[in-house]
């Protein structure tokens, strides 16, 4: 079995998560969070489109971590992102963290908006 080491360059991967927090690039952030290759910021959840809409044209896909389990996105939230041209992939937050890291290591233009588990 061959193991490959991921190279994130200057980007900060999601190192871990737990009840109410995420560890990103070695630093702990509590509560919902928005992660891009170059920054980590608090996110206000589904009501906070102002943090997400500026990503239009800067990313190829936005992973929405819906918490411990997969959940449907509120229709108005999804419609606003679709209309802005932001590709959205909802999934449970643990899966969103893993998928974000893999695509980030490939140099893809991705972001993750994550609700804690």
Percent of residues in beta strands? 25-35%
- If you compute it from the alpha carbons, what radius of gyration comes out, rounded to the nearest whole angstrom? 13 Å
Largest sheet: 5 strands, mixed
Overall mean pLDDT stands at 94
> Oligomer, anyone?
single chain
Estimate the helix proportion, in percent: 10-25%
Count of alpha and pi helical runs? 2
Give the neighbour order of strands across the main sheet: 5-4-8-6-7
- Helix/strand-derived class? alpha/beta
Global shape: globular
Order of helices and strands: EEEEEEHEHE
| Unreliable sequence segments | none
Overview of the structural elements:
- With 117 residues, the chain is an alpha/beta fold.
- It has two helices and eight strands, in the order ββββββαβαβ.
- The strands form two sheets. A five-stranded mixed β-sheet has the order 5-4-8-6-7, sandwiched between helices.
- β4 and β5 form a beta hairpin.
- 25% of the residues are buried.
């Amino acid at each position: 079995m061959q193991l490959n080491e991921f190279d994130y360059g200057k980007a900060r991967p999601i190192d871990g998560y737990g009840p109410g927090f995420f560890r990103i690039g070695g630093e702990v952030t509590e509560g919902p969070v928005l992660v891009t290759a170059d920054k980590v910021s608090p996110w206000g959840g589904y009501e906070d489109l102002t943090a997400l809409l500026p990503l239009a044209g800067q990313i190829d896909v936005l992973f929405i971590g819906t918490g411990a389990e997969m959940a449907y996105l509120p229709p108005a939230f999804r419609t606003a992102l679709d209309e802005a041209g932001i590709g959205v992939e909802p999934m449970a937050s643990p899966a969103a963290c893993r998928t974000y890291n893999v695509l980030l290591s490939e140099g893809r233009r991705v972001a993750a908006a994550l609700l804690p588990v």
